Amino acid sequence: MALNRDPHVLVVGGSDSSGGAGIARDIETISSIGLRSCVAVTAVTVQTHQSVTAVHHIQPSLVADQMRAALRANRVSAIKIGMLSTGRVIAAVATVLHENPRIPAVLDPVLASSSGRQLLEPGAIGVLKRDLMPLCRLVTPNLVELAVLTGSDLALDDDDALRQGRRLLADGPQALLIKGGHAEGPRSTDMLLSRDREPVRFDMPRLAGSMRGTGCMLASAIAAHLAGSKPLEDSVCEGKRFVFEKLLRCIEREPGSGA
Ligand code: PLP
Fold first, then answer.
1. Rounded CA gap, 95 and 98, in Å?
2. pLDDT of residue 185
3. Helix axes 158-170, 143-150, angle to 10 degrees
4. Domain membership flag for residue 87
5. What is this model's ipTM?
């Protein structure tokens, strides 16, 4: 078969041996939305649900080669990007995105694990903003990532987060989804910012529990819906609903938390 014509999402990211985050979560999410995945691995990590004990970077040319082969083999309708590890890997991914400008890319700007291990070298943040973000249809930072990416203190409220978001948007992504999941209060609010319109808020009740890999799931679910040609706002809405329902099921199964 020369080309698999089923719509695929190309997942570019790190593997997580625990299955809690990274490409395993991405593929699981995309498949439960009914699409197929193809992959380009950027890093191999050794993890349990409590800690990251090792990270092995993949050579940048090997990342680009995996992406090009996946794109040759399949009809890729969206690209989801997660852990990138190094500035050189970011540059390699950006080169392949330049070659495929019509495929929407969703970037989850993974900087660290929830256990505190750095998953992107600190010097690579400039490359991420300069070389990769302008090529992305959507970037999905949480409040901590937003603060690091804009060199600010953690946003104190929604207005502060919007100010930081507008600054990041000026650096080039077409749209930004600021995730408020780590904030406090009875509601969890995400905000979608784009250049040409007012911010759109997505509001959900805050659930009493947490789950690993929710950032991976959200960006993958949005990419899967974009791949099905849904408009951005609808894709974000569907992605939010997907993660909310997963989290709810996880809490029902394992009250308090879950992996
Ligand atoms: N490991 C990999 C490979 C990831 O891509 C991510 C997040 O995207 C993480 C770990 C962090 O996940 P968590 O915050 O659930 O620990």
1. 5
2. 73
3. 50
4. yes
5. 0.95
Calpha distance 161→20 (Å, rounded) = 28
The confidence band for 65, taking pLDDT boundaries of 50, 70 and 90, is very high
3-state secondary structure of 65: helix
The residues, ordered by sequence, that sit 6+ positions from 102 with a Cβ below 8 Å of its Cβ are none
What is the tally of structural domains in the chain? 1
Question: Tokens 């903003």 correspond to what residue?
Answer: 129
Cα-based distances in Å from 66 to 40, 92, 163: 5, 11, 37
Residue 182: its pLDDT value, please? Answer: 66
Choosing from 11, 16, 44, 114 the residue with most ligand 1 atoms within 8 A of its CB, the one to mutate for a pocket test is: 16
Burial (Cβ within 10 Å: 0-12, 13-18, ≥19) of residue 207: middle
Looking at the chain, the whole-number percentage of residues with pLDDT higher than 70 is 97
Which domain range does residue 53 map to? 7-251
255 band by pLDDT with thresholds 50, 70 and 90:
low
> Which protein residue's CA is at the shortest distance from atom 5 of ligand 1?
22
